[in-house]
Amino acid sequence: MAGTGLGAPLLSGQTGVPEPERSGTKKRMTVYIDAMAEGGEMLHPKLGAFIRCLGPLASGLFKLIMFVMPFYWQLLSACYSVYSVLPIHVLQMIFGFALCFFGGTYVTSIAAIEAFRTLGGMKLLDSLTLVYDEMTKVKEVIRKDSVEDKDGDGTADIEALTSTQLAQRSLVLGMKTVEKPEVLQTALVFLWTSWISVLATLKLQFAQTIALALGTADILKFPAVIIFAPPLTLALGPDLKHWVDTIIDTSIKIIAVMFAWYIKMVVSAFYSGLRGGRMFADGLFKLLEEKDMLKDMPDYLVPKPYDPDKTYLDEMIMYPLAAGGFLFQVMSGFMLPFPLNLVFLPLNIIEWTLRWEITWH
After folding, report:
1. What is the pLDDT of residues 249-260, one digit of tens each?
2. How far is the C-alpha of 160 from the C-alpha of 171, rounded, in Å?
3. Which of 46, 191, 335, 350 lies at a C-alpha separation of 20 to 30 Å from 18?
């Protein structure tokens, strides 16, 4: 056969495209994609039919993302704008306060951030910046398209489109806006490999938690079978009695894992409360020192010049704040109140995804 790679005779016979020269995989792939884009018949009709069947599902998912994403995008942009202008000590106080009151809730997310930083944080930040810049361009193009009126009838052109057509139009505009998808691909690949490396690190870090959960499940399985097997067998009947052991085993493991993670969150909340309180107190007094607001305080409270090792004033702020943050987390069951639970929904999804990956994969 004269053709190589993707099959030049098939391309030539179906689309009229000449056989590609032997100049590497890149050129053969380009010829193949161009042939498909010219409107030729699909080379794999069954695959094409399957892909078309997935269209409504993909369209619905895309519309949901497009509906929710602007809110979180604006929130992220606002946070980044505030982050860019706030003094470093104010940021330290904010992060310390958040760590006090939410550190236990996001135990795996905080550990993942530390792992990301250890595994090449600056390169990861560059990749995230690239993805953010590209998505900003896409957002601006879609915004301009939403108010464009090419036919001059006084209403935006998108008003005449159905929701499915609008979703497809936005997707195509976004793909056209990204001029160098291979660069975006490289950034996304690095993010993916970083994610895998972080998962491996977290599995080692939280191996004790998982071992505690599964060990507890093994110990509790026998008494659980004695207690719950008779009523469960009667409820399922003779035809389904072989499911009794599986149901009890799975239920015990799930409960044990939830309990182990709760214990881990309590320990993490105690530690993060102390660490966050220290960050807040240090940031506060450094800010006051920069503003020259400590000079009027008595020397027995604040020595001159200010030295945190020679005063207990920072501990007087640190420990009450740490205690308040720890009690808040435990009494709230590590659940964020409304509307913070909606604001931090993406972070909650990341947290539970990490726990699932660490525990069951």
Report:
1. 888 888 888 888
2. 17
3. 46
- Between CA 134 and CA 176 the distance in angstroms is 11
Q: HEC states along the chain?
A: CCCCCCCHHHHHHHHCCCCCCCCCHHHHHHHHHHHHHCCCCCCCHHHHHHHHHCHHHHHHHHHHHHHHHHHHHHHHHHHHHHHHHCCHHHHHHHHHHHHHHHCCCCHHHHHHHHHHHHCCHHHHHHHHHHHHHHHHHHHHHHHHHHCCCCCCCCCCHHHHCCHHHHHHHHHHHHHHHCCCHHHHHHHHHHHHHHHHHHHHHHHHHCHHHHHHHHHHHHHHHHHHHHHHHHHHHHHHCHHHHHHHHHHHHHHHHHHHHHHHHHHHHHHHHHHHHHHHHHHHHHHHHHHHHHCCCCCCCCCCCCCCCCCHHHCCHHHHHHHHHHHHHHHHHHHCCCCCCCCHHHHCHHHHHHHHHHHHHHHHC
Using an 8 Å Cβ cutoff, are 185 and 197 in contact? no
Per the CB < 8 A criterion, the answer to whether 279 and 96 are in contact is yes
Angle of CA points 307, 311, 313, to nearest 5°? 115
Write down the residue that tokens 């205690």 correspond to. Answer: 323
* pLDDT of the residue at 20: 43
Q: 162: burial class by Cβ within 10 Å (0-12, 13-18, 19+)?
A: exposed
Of 4-13, 173-182, 223-232, 269-278, which gets the smallest average pLDDT? 4-13
Could you give the CA distance from residue 344 to residue 97 in angstroms, rounded to a whole number? 16
Is 281 buried (19+), middle (13-18) or exposed (0-12) by CB count in 10 A?
buried
Structure tokens at 159: 């008003």
Residues 147, 155: contact at Cβ < 8 Å? no
pLDDT tens for 88-122 read 888 889 989 988 998 888 888 888 887 777 776 66
When mean pLDDT is compared over 35-44, 129-138, 167-176, 209-218, the highest value belongs to 209-218
Q: Please give the pLDDT value at position 8.
A: 40
Cα atoms in the Cβ-side hemisphere of radius 13 Å centred on 351: 19
* Domain segments of the chain as ranges: 8-52, 207-360
